[in-house]
UniProtKB/TrEMBL annotation:
Residues given in the record as Zn(2+) binding sites: C144, C147, C198, C201
The name this protein goes by in its record: protein acetyllysine N-acetyltransferase
Annotated EC: 2.3.1.286
InterPro entries per UniProt: DHS-like_NAD/FAD-binding_dom, NAD-dep_sirtuin_deacylases, Sirtuin, Sirtuin_cat_small_dom_sf, Ssirtuin_cat_dom
Keyword annotations from UniProtKB, A to Z: Acyltransferase, Metal-binding, NAD, Transferase, Zinc
Enzyme type, top EC level: transferase
Length: 293
């Protein structure tokens, strides 16, 4: 399964929340009650934690990096690592919000069987969820594309700091830094940044994040499919489902008769297929559903 962006990353149209959010949240609770529920999350669940999304109405237009750009252009790769060297710190400092914490609590209470997340921010893990499929990987691991050796992002950070002393301070002195999704930051002058190669084979290092144009590992797809196939309900939280690697799990549920609910600000690809749709803030809606449960 390839991570594919089928439309340009432009801000979504601003919508008004449903006027009957409480009633719709109660309908979500009714749909979940006594049933095995799997949650599929996207960037919208993490924006209250300070992590930007790609398509929110207030987001700037973005051009996400592709796998082909990363592996094919050393200059582009250096530019990416310089930005990541700053951006990953912001993601590491982010903390789960009430929506993440509530999903973890639902898992402990037996209301949720697992979470499939398109996010790379580790916030579900930090919140206490344990049955997690990180569909697009996480910011916390770096992989060698040649020998497959894996390292923690924290260890790589120390190496990059040693090669690029005071880089972060120099950049910060030029003004505010705009943080972008996927553990990235928006920078322009990165020509003097020095990269790190694999300690084992001098191969190319890459964050363990599935870029556009890259295959999602088969084991992750299988794990997500198993969760969906074992579920009685699939609830989408904070995703427009623009990326097909997430939307296909909705299609898998629908084709087998499993009801789908959607909690998101704005319309999604699944709206015409969903049993319940709620245009509202993830934290508010899930809190109302929890009260109804």
């Amino acid at each position: 399964m390839v991570r594919v962006r089928e439309t340009a990353w432009t801000p979504a149209e601003r919508t008004e929340p449903d006027p009957d959010v409480a009633e719709r949240a109660a309908a979500l609770a009714d749909l979940m009650r006594g049933r095995r529920t799997v949650i599929l999350t996207g960037a919208g669940i993490s924006t209250p934690s300070g992590i930007p999304d790609y398509r929110g109405p207030d987001s700037p237009g973005r051009t996400p990096m592709t796998f082909q750009q990363f592996v094919g252009d050393p200059g582009f790769r250096r530019h990416y690592w310089a930005r990541n060297h700053l951006g990953w710190r912001h993601m590491e400092a982010a903390r789960p919000n009430a929506a993440h914490l509530l999903l973890a609590d639902w898992e402990r209470r037996g209301l949720v069987n697992g979470v499939i997340t398109q996010n790379v921010d580790l916030l579900h893990l930090k919140a206490g969820s344990r049955q997690i499929v990180d569909l697009h990987g996480t910011y916390g691991v770096v992989t060698c594309l040649d020998c497959g050796q894996r390292r923690s992002r924290w260890a790589l950070h120390e190496d990059l700091e040693a090669l690029n002393p005071e880089f972060a301070q120099r950049v910060a002195s030029r003004g505010a830094i705009e943080v972008a999704p996927d553990a990235d930051a928006v920078l322009h002058d990165t020509a003097d940044f020095r990269m790190v190669d694999c300690h084992g084979c001098d191969g190319m290092l890459k964050p363990d994040i599935v870029y556009f144009g890259e295959n999602v590992p088969a084991a992750r797809v299988a794990a997500a499919n198993a969760l969906v196939d074992d579920a009685d309900v699939v609830v989408v939280v904070g995703s427009s489902l623009t990326v097909r690697s997430g939307y296909r799990f909705v299609r898998r549920a629908v084709t087998t008769g499993t009801p789908v609910a959607v909690v998101n600000r704005g319309r999604t690809r699944a709206h015409d297929e969903a049993t319940v749709t709620i245009d509202g803030d993830c934290v508010e809606v899930l809190g109302l559903a929890d009260a109804a449960l």
